[in-house]
Amino acid sequence: MTDIGARAGGRVVTLDVVRGVAVMGILLANLPGFALPAAAYTSPLPWGGIDLGDRIAWALTYVLVEGKMRGLFSFLFGASVLLVIERARAAGDDEAGVHFARMTWLFLFGIAHLYLVWSGDILHHYAAIGAIAFLFRNLSVRALVIAGLCLVSVQVLLFVGITVTAFLLPGGGATEMFGTGDRGAMSAEIRAFRGGWLDNVAHNIANDAFTPIGLFLVGGFETLGYMLWGMAGLRSGMLTGAWPRARYLRWVRWTLPIGWAAYASLAWLVIARGFDGRYIAVASFGASTPLRPVLITGYACVIVLAVRPGGWLTERVAAVGRAAFTNYLGTSVLMTFVFHGWGLGQFGRVGRAEMYWLAPLAWALMLLWSKPWLDRYRYGPLEWLWRSLARLEWQPLQRQR
After folding, report:
1. What is the DSSP letter of 178?
2. DSSP strands (E only) in 198-241
């Protein structure tokens, strides 16, 4: 494989494809957040059904998707941050000015998304952590890998602490916190999201006012670690297809079997313990955090191996990745329309297994619109707006024939 085998019209196709897969996969991870009360995200016990189909849906999502797509997207965000900085430097632009303008506007987009559309926004978090990642831009591949390892290790220690706390809580504290959830809070959440748009916004503001701070303090170490690994992946050629094929295959052969086997064991433990909150804490926090990087790396290698420049599917998925910002926010609007009261009002009414049928429909929409749009225009709609605002100048959108 050749470095930037991948390049087409100045784009690194492998980066676009991995980003496209990540943004499509994130939908699977986010569907419980769109359709069900927050307490049901890590367990089917609070809401959404616990029959065989629901348990299988939970287990498959946990083993294959949960945390991995977000991590993969974080890898790509870090790589993209470094790519933009290096291109600004090569063009003689102010790399700090370019970077921090982008992060400032992304943060504002994310805050608007968090409070006005959906409380599961990740963009504001990426913007805040991306601002810190700028400090690491000149490190070598080795230094980036070591720094990322240190940061993720801190995250592991924090989440082990949460897990230990779950076992120390008196009575049914852990069961309510991580297992069954608070029934009163869930009822209020269901009423809010089945209500009108203003009810949705009021609930988001009241319940998620400190989400940016909390997410930054609790999840920031892991996110920054992944971004630094993404920078290393770009600088080493791993994410651009520069490695020999045999090297990618070696990583796949040990990361995927080990990662999937470990996650499957944790899923079995949770199910065998009847979704006891203490063991959900083990599976979702303490034990899974050190395992995620293994599968994220394996997934990235598989996707790079699958890239076929010029192939129909490669071009379609790469287009989804090039318009990832638009596809991510567009998915939120589509799913809140389906589940929230300002739309079809199906929040809390669809079972866990049934809601996943929406994913292929959303993927089809992404694959259908992204490439025709980008054949005609330089950027996705929101990518164009973000770029224009960050540069304080309307950017050319129409492609020249």
Report:
1. I
2. none
Domain ranges of the chain: 7-391
Q: State residue 50's pLDDT score.
A: 83
**pLDDT tens digit sequence for 321-366:** 999 999 999 999 999 999 999 999 999 999 999 999 999 999 999 9
What are the C-alpha distances in Å from 337 to residues 325, 332, 346, 389? 19, 8, 9, 27
Q: Read off the DSSP letter of residue 398.
A: B
Whole-angstrom distance, CA of residue 43 vs CA of residue 53: 13
Question: How remote is the C-alpha of 341 from its chain's centroid?
Answer: 25
pLDDT band at 24 (very low <50, low <70, confident <90, very high): very high
pLDDT at 4: 40
Q: Please check the confidence at residue 162 and state whether its pLDDT lies above 80.
A: yes
Name residues whose C-beta falls within 8 Å of residue 265's C-beta, 6 or more positions apart in sequence. Answer: none
Q: Which residues pair with 11 in a beta bridge?
A: 8
Cα–Cα–Cα angle for 261, 267, 271, nearest 5°? 145
Instruction: Please check whether residue 40 is in contact with residue 46, taking contact to mean a CB–CB distance below 8 angstroms.
Output: yes
pLDDT digits (tens, 9 = 90+) for 380-397: 999 999 999 999 999 999
Which amino acid appears at position 44 of this protein?
P
Secondary structure letter of residue 11 according to DSSP? E
Which residues, other chains included, contact 130 with Cβ-Cβ below 8 Å and sequence gap of 6+? 77, 78, 81, 99, 103, 106, 227
Tokens, residue 204: 């988001």
User: Both tokens of residue 370?
Assistant: 């992204």
DSSP, collapsed to helix, strand or coil, labels residue 47 as coil
CB burial string 208-219: b at 16+ within 10 A, e below = beebbeebbeeb
